[in-house]
């Protein structure tokens, strides 16, 4: 529980920023499948007329090339763009549309003429829990939480307002390709804020969905 509490405290920054550690070189970016993925890279000086190249480990074609106003994305045509209006500020970051699991991996941002190289890891498959069933029972309520398309496999738990794990049914786990689908249900018998928490320790990512249960009135959701 101590480790999970630490992850919970850390995730407030990690989830919002999308960055897990480090400066540009050695940075990890974590996104959900289907989201935009922004890979950061900056030289700190104008690069409007400076060639820079993005490559991915294990891929023969370049992910993105900017060279004196000519931009190409051979490996991911139509899915990669950069921040053209920010080139004068040295911003060579790229944005990948509709990120897929296979987009995950190690990327390199290279400035050949400046002999500068930055490395970024992209992780696709961040878990996002959703509370899908809430049924009033005699003296309590049944809550169900679903996590879909997650990679790597997350641990899914129900917590109370004290961040303590509460008893739940055995998780239902299925897998399609590399994607995990997990359902966890619990029955609660008192008024409280309850939280479904998905933790991916391998990538230091955690997200949550909350619901306030008042057994004699309306229920309210929050992120």
From TrEMBL:
Pfam families: C2-set_3, V-set. This is Butyrophilin subfamily 3 member A2-like. The keyword Signal applies. Gene3D superfamilies: Immunoglobulins. Keywords: Immunoglobulin domain, Membrane, Signal. One of its GO terms (cellular component) is external side of plasma membrane. InterPro entries: BTN3A2-like_Ig-C (IPR053896), Ig-like_dom (IPR007110), Ig-like_dom_sf (IPR036179), Ig-like_fold (IPR013783), Ig_sub (IPR003599), Ig_V-set (IPR013106), IgSF_BTN/MOG (IPR050504). GO terms for molecular function: signaling receptor binding. It is found in: Membrane. It comes from the Eukaryota. The keyword Protein biosynthesis does not apply. Residues 1-22 form the signal peptide. One of its GO terms (biological process) is T cell receptor signaling pathway. Residues 31-119, 129-212 form the Ig-like domain.
């Amino acid at each position: 529980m101590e480790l999970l509490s630490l992850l919970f405290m850390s995730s407030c920054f990690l989830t919002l920023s999308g960055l897990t550690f480090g400066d540009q070189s050695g940075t990890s970016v974590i996104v959900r499948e289907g989201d935009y993925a922004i890979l950061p890279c900056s030289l700190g000086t104008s690069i409007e007329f400076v060639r820079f190249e993005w490559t991915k480990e294990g891929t023969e074609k370049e992910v993105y090339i900017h060279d004196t106003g000519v931009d190409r994305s051979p490996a991911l045509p139509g899915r990669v763009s950069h921040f053209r209006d920010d080139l004068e500020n040295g911003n060579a970051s790229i944005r990948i549309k509709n990120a897929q699991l296979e987009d995950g991996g190690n990327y390199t941002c290279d400035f050949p003429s400046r002999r500068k190289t930055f490395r970024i890891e992209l992780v696709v498959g961040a878990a996002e829990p959703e509370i899908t069933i809430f049924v009033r029972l005699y003296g309590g309520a049944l809550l169900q939480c679903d996590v879909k398309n997650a990679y790597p496999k997350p641990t899914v738990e129900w917590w109370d307002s004290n961040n303590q794990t509460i008893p739940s049914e055995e998780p239902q786990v299925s897998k399609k390709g590399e994607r995990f689908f997990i359902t966890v249900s619990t029955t609660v018998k008192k008024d409280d804020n309850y939280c479904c928490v998905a933790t991916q320790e391998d990538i230091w990512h955690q997200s949550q969905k909350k619901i306030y249960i008042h057994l004699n009135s309306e229920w309210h959701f929050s992120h």
